[in-house]
Design brief:
about 15% helix, 15 strands, globular, about 40% strand, 6-stranded antiparallel beta sheet, Jelly Rolls, 7-stranded mixed beta sheet, mainly beta
Length: about 210
Amino acid sequence: MARRTVSVADFIETLKGFEKDPITRDRVLHYLRETALDRASLDRYVHFRSDMYTRNLIYRDDLIEAMAVCWSPGQRTVIHTHNGQLGWMSVESGALAVINYKWLGCNASDNQNVAGTELDIDRREVQECYPDGPVNTVDKVQTIHQVVVQGKERVVSVHVYSRPIESCVAFDLERRICYRRQLSFYSRYGQVVVDEGDLAAKPVPDSAEHV
C-alpha cells in the first residue's frame, strides 16, 4: 500500500501529538508505515558526504527526536546499541539492511550500557528496508544493530527516537569489546554545524562517531 505524503512540518506536529499519551512502539510504527515525507520539505535536511554518512536533526524535545540520515554507497554504522530507547527508521529513498544482534554477556557492571571487555553478542536476522517497505524498530528487547547501505544508490532515511540520548555503546567484534561513543549531528534544523576544518584535521573512520 502506497504511503500518504506529508510535509516535514505536519510530520513533526503529528509526532508531538503522540506525547499527550504514553509513547509506544506500535503507535508510532503504525504512523510511519503509512506516511512518507514530501521531498521538497525534506531537502533542507539532506546532506551527503562521500567520507561519512550524516545525521541531520529535524526536531528534538525531551520526549521525541527526529532526524534525516543521509548515506552514500558503501557506508555503514558500527554495531551499536540504543540503550533501550524506542526507535523507528523509515527509508525515503534507496535501500538499507539492518543486521540485528543479541547481547549475550559482558564483564561491565551495567552490561551493554557502559564500556567493557570480554563482550559476547550473537548475530541474528537481517531486515531489508526500502521506500514503502518495512519500518525498522528498536526497543528494550531489540536494541543492538548495524545499518548498512544496499546497492549503489544514495539513501535517505528518517529516524524517530524516544527518548533522545547523547551517547551510545558501540561494539568491536574483532577485539570483543564495547565502548561508549558520543553522538553528534552534521546539521541541526537545516543548518550545517560541522566545521570543515575539523573534519579535515582528523579523519572520520567509517562514520563511527556518527552512529
